[in-house]
Structures are given as structure tokens and as C-alpha cells.
Amino acid sequence: MLSRLGLTSAGRGAAGVTEVVDDGWWRERELSAHPIPRPPSLEEGFFSLRVSRSLLQSSALSRIRNFLDYPNSIHNTISLREIVMEVKLWNDKREREMYENFAELYAIIRATEKLEKAYIRDTISPSEYETNCQKLIAHFKTLSSTLKDTIPSIERFADTYKMDCPAAINRLMVSGVPATVEHRAAAAASATTSAAIVAECVQNFITAMDSLKLNMVAVDQVHPLLSDLSTSLNKLTILPPDFEGKMKMKEWISRLSKMGAADELTEQQSRQLHFDLESSYNSFMAALPNAGT
């Protein structure tokens, strides 16, 4: 019954010890005074399990398989030293350098992906992120230029090795600069644009007020000036939608649109418009962030 279950049955007698072993068929093996050897321990010489192509093609493969299947068999006397054989990925120095460069490129992409995620999660300071990111980008550019003939497409390299590093590909291939530098450039461009729009608004305010002082009160003279002023005020994002100057210019443009081109503003209307322009100009200057400096 034990033999049917594949279990080991042992008993002591003159004949020795009987053991049931399943190695493809049911058989009994007679063991006399030979004890069953135990598998070798790490201390007894388990250096590494590196199997070369030559070993895989040799007749020793069947012995290794038999040893792994039945380590307790007395017939399996193979030593682990027999399978301590190194696999070489290269055949010459050129191939070795190519694989080492592949490993470097893989490591750079992986490290950049981890760095991007750390920055997004705020687990690294912006200064530390920028320093390390610039270093990785510099290494990547140097290595990618070296491998341009071997690896024409970095995206294909990442896809071949199942890297799944979209943030790293964007940072290394698309942006080319750390996110902190990117954000500073965007902020500087926005500040420059805002300064130009502020200057445009100031110019349009002064032009409209000066035209009224010069008695340019015809509709076809005043309407374009107020339209330009209203357009420039709407470009400036720091002003709220209900800003006084925006609302008053809208009212005056609507009033002038109902008049003929040759019509002129009365003296009272001209004084009121000048007053509204001056009041809006003062409110505009007060609304600027650095108005007091």
C-alpha cells in the first residue's frame, strides 16, 4: 500500500533496508550497509548555479536532472562543482562593451523614472531633484550618442526590455531638462508676457485720455481707442472679470456702438468718459502686484 502511494517504507533485517523510489516506474531498491546520503549544504560548496551552453549540450545534463529529481539516490554522486560553469553573453571584447552599455542605459532610464516619481510624491527636495536629474540627463545624452548606431530608437529599446518608464522617456527624450527648470522657464515667460500686457494697458489708457484732452470726441475717433483698451485689459489674467475698468469700457463701447460714426460726444459725455478713464487707470495701477514698489 505504501509503495502504491509513493511513500518510503524502511525496515531493519538481515537483508538491510528496503526503500521504494518512484523514478518513472515502481521498483524496490535493496540498500545494504550504505546510508542514504543527504543533499550537500551551502557550507559544502554551493558556489553558484551558472550553467554554460557547453554544459547544456553535454551528456552531463541528464546526470544533473537525475540529481535534482533524486538527490538522495546513492547513484547520484554528481558534485555541484560540476555545474559551476559561467555563462558568457559575449564572444569578444566588442560584444562585452555593447552589453555593458546596454546595462548602463537601462539603469539610467530606471533611475530617472524613480526620480520623477519621488519628485511628484514630494519625497525629495526640488534642489536635490534638479541636481540628480541634470546628472542623469547628461549621462543619458553622452551614452545615447555613443549608442546611436546600435540603438537607433530609445523607445524601442525600452519596449524590448519591458521597462514601462513613460516619465523617464518624457524627461530624457522630450523635455531634456529637469521639471524645476521647466517650471521656472514657464513662470519667467508668463511674467515677461504679463509685463508687456501691463505696458500695453498703460499706453492705451494714456492715449485715450490724451485724445479727449485734444478734443478728439467723434465716435470714429474714440471707439477704436476704447476697443484697444478693453482688449488689452482682458488679456491681463491678474485682473478679475468684474474689474472696474473692464466694466466701464464695456458700457462705453456699447453706448458708442449705437451712435453714428460722425456723431460727437457732448462736453458732458467727454468729461464723464475722461473721469471714468482716469478712475479706471488708478484702479488698474492699484491692482498690480508691485504697484507700491
Description of the structure:
This protein has helices at residues 53-56, 60-69, 93-120, 126-146, 154-160, 166-175, 179-213, 219-235, 244-257, 267-287; strands spanning 17-22, 26-31. The protein has 293 residues and is mainly α. It has a two-stranded antiparallel ribbon with strand order 1-2. Strand 1 (17-22) and strand 2 (26-31) form a beta hairpin. Helix 3 crosses helix 6 (166-175) and helix 9 runs antiparallel to helix 10 (267-287).
Task: Give the helix/strand layout.
Blueprint: E1 17-22, E2 26-31, H1 53-56, H2 60-69, H3 93-120, H4 126-146, H5 154-160, H6 166-175, H7 179-213, H8 219-235, H9 244-257, H10 267-287
Antiparallel strand pairs: 1-2
Descriptive key words:
293 residues, two-stranded antiparallel ribbon, 10 helices, 57% helix, disordered N terminus
Summarize the structure.
The chain has ten helices and two strands. With 293 residues, the chain is mainly alpha-helical. The chain has a two-stranded antiparallel sheet.
The total count of strands amounts to 2
Q: Main β-sheet: number of strands, strand sense, barrel status? A: 2 strands, antiparallel
- Overall form: rod-shaped
Number of helices: 10
Rg, nearest Å: 42 Å
Class by helix and strand content?
A: mainly alpha
